[in-house]
Amino acid sequence: MNHPPEPAGKEQQLLRHARREGLLILVAWALALIWSVGYSYLYGYGRPVNDIRLILGMPDWVLWAIAGPWVVCLAFTMWFCFGFMTDDDLGRDPDEGAGHV
Question: Can you give the C-alpha Rg of the chain in angstroms?
Answer without folding.
Answer: 23
